[in-house]
Amino acid sequence: MTIEQAQQKVDEWIKTIGVRYFNELTNMTILTEEVGELARIMARRYGEQSEKESDKNKDLGDEMADVLWVLICLANQTGVDLTKALEKNFEKKTARDSDRHKNNEKLK
């Protein structure tokens, strides 16, 4: 699935099953909540915190998909074409960081 197709599928789902989009501020709050859930798993599974028994069966991919879903909702609501935005972001990072990481002693 392309990013464009994902934006279309989320939009179709929202309009047929989800009834309507939550407003942008509500979705921004939901995005923050979903990122927090992802962060909790990452901190416990890959960080130094011990993993709680209740978190051991959490699906990391599903949590990432939740973040992506709400981000796509926000893009749809605000008229952002994520494919174009990501392409532009690659160009920005390439121009800005073409030598930066190669010359970073911390990465060697």
Can you give a write-up of this model?
The structure is a single chain. The chain is flat and about 50 Å long. The protein has helices spanning about 5-15, 25-45, 60-80, 80-95. The relative contact order is 0.14. It is an all-alpha fold and about 110 residues long.
Strand content: under 5%
Could you tell me the number of beta strands?
0
Structural class: mainly alpha
Separation, N- and C-terminal Cα atoms: 35 Å
The dominant shape is: flat
Order of helices and strands: HHHH
Poorly predicted tracts of residues: none
Q: Helicity level, as a percent range?
A: 55-70%
Set out the fold topology.
Blueprint: H1 3-16, H2 24-45, H3 60-78, H4 82-97
Short characterization:
This protein is an all-alpha fold and 108 residues long. It contains 4 helices and no strands. The relative contact order is 0.14.
